[in-house]
Amino acid sequence: MLAPVAILFVFQLVGEVIARSFSLPVPGPVIGLALLALTFTARPAVKQRVEPVSRVILSHLSLLFVPAGVGVIASIDTLSENWGALTLVLLVSTVIALAATVATFLLVLRWTGNGHE
Amino acid sequence: MNDPVEIWSYLSRAPLWWLSCTLLVYMGSDSLAARLGRPALANPVLIAVCAMSAILWTTGTPYADYFDGAQFIHFLLGPATVALAVPLHSNLAAIRRLAAPILAALLVGSAVAAISAVLLAQAVGLPENVVISISPKSTTAPVAIAISEALGGLPSLTAVLVILTGIIGAITVTPLMNLLRIRDWRARGFAVGVAAHGIGTARAFQVNETAGAFAGIAMALNALMTSLLVPIIVSWLLG
């Protein structure tokens, strides 16, 4: 239990150090993610150790957004002036982005002739 | 027996109280969502946030006091992102095979998310700093905040808009995809990861494991794509 948690923390730490050192636009945890995936290819045993903990964390990913979400209510003042317009913009833009992404994915999938799952 | 008011005033400022409270409220919200059959609108993040805010409002607790405890949960977002390496690696063969649709959908989705947000925000007459703040809304919070700051937006407003986008994406994705009759879990997951980052990814993992893996991939790739595209889009549309 302890080793896989340490692995996740250390990879995040390394990612943060790399991101800061080279002032990269990508956040540290995303770099840590990429490095860990590369490590899995080199050392499959590491993946087996991390897998159970990863599954637990990812199945409760929603929980981790609650503190920041409560902050939305706390900053309702910033929103109060424009909240109707902002919500409308977010709703329409998100639906358009979802549709555009899924349409592009499926179209290119068909063009490249690989429709099977 | 000590005065309960005194005990409360001690506990309400200690991290343990709000940490436990957040966990219990989330567990309650999640089991409520599960009992309702996980319909899109009963999003556990949304229910938990509303319930938690109601508790803070009733007890007159400032957000900073709450966050002293809740930060331990918030902190786990970093390791959770690293943990996405597992589903990413498990799907590596599929990702390689699907490199063309993945890259095309990433480019189009990321651009459409930002361009539509900027154009719509201008159309409803929002001020320029708000338009800038809304432009990186579809990517994960730390990236969006950094972009907003660099372009002259309001980072705290961006943080709020990112969370709201995630909740909106998590709620709308299932009905929208069913309406469009899209059954490919890879495409569904990828779309919600691009448009609604981690909150969308959390939703995808609840619906289908393949969708979750592709959402995670999309979220990670979009962190990179948004930081490349949004500065160009903003200077093009607002310049």
From TrEMBL, chain A:
The keyword Transcription does not apply. The chain crosses the membrane at residues 29-46, 58-76, 88-109. Keywords: Cell membrane, Membrane, Transmembrane, Transmembrane helix. It comes from the Bacteria. It is found in: Cell membrane. It is a multi-pass membrane protein. Pfam families: LrgA (PF03788). This is CidA/LrgA family protein.
UniProtKB/TrEMBL annotation, chain B:
It is found in: Membrane. InterPro entries: CidB/LrgB. Keywords: Membrane, Transmembrane, Transmembrane helix. This is LrgB family protein. It is a multi-pass membrane protein. It comes from Paracoccus onchidii. It comes from the Bacteria. The chain crosses the membrane at residues 16-34, 41-60, 72-90, 102-124, 157-180, 211-238.
